[in-house]
Write a structure and sequence with these properties.
Radius of gyration: 20 Å
Shape: globular
Number of strands: 9
Mean pLDDT: 88
Strand content: 25-35%
Helix content: 25-40%
Strand order of the largest sheet: 1-8-9-2-7-5-4
Distance between the termini: 55 Å
Structural class: alpha+beta
Number of domains: 1
CATH architecture: Beta Barrel
Number of helices: 4
Order of helices and strands: EHEHEEEEEHEEH
CATH class: Mainly Beta
């Protein structure tokens, strides 16, 4: 009878988040999210696993039936050689055709865009990115969101003091 493979303590059991785009939820209303694979070169995936990724200025373009991740900064791999990758090159996203068509239909409408929310390594060791179909917030929407958050925090504090 074959022995069962035991997981060691240093192996990740679930997805490991590498980078998040915290400003996206502050600046946009998130309508719908999608999970996509990312086509990366060898030095890029090594740099991603080291955590050298910035999603802040990133966005997704849909052209000719393909989704492309633009302006996402992946730092050059430190142990890389002269064939290291370009930091902000466009990267292809792997999505189903139906998802790409849905994204393209909504993104061509006025005031809709597609932004990356988080980049992570899944349990199988593959780089995945969570992208979202979003609509920009106005200044008064941002203020309203902050006011709601402050009111909820005050309410929670009052309930905690009262013993609930």
């Amino acid at each position: 009878m074959a022995k069962k493979k035991q997981q060691s303590n240093n192996e990740p059991r679930g997805p490991r988040v590498i980078a998040t785009n915290r400003r996206a939820r502050h600046e946009y209303f998130v309508e719908e999210t999608f999970e996509a694979g990312v086509v990366l070169t060898g030095t890029e995936i090594k740099s991603v696993r080291a955590g050298h990724v910035n999603l802040r200025d990133g966005f997704v373009l849909v052209r000719d039936g393909e989704a492309w991740l633009m302006n996402v900064h992946i730092a050059p791999y430190e142990q890389g050689n002269r064939y290291n990758h370009d930091e902000t090159r466009r990267r292809k996203l792997l999505l189903h055709k139906r998802e790409i068509e849905r994204l393209h239909a909504r993104a061509t409408q006025r005031n809709w865009t597609i932004v990356p929310l988080k980049l992570y390594i899944n349990a199988r060791g593959l780089a995945k990115i969570q992208i979202a179909l979003v609509q920009g917030k106005k200044l008064y929407d941002k203020r309203q969101t902050i006011a709601k958050r402050d009111a909820k925090r005050d309410m929670d504090r009052a309930l905690k003091r009262a013993g609930y």
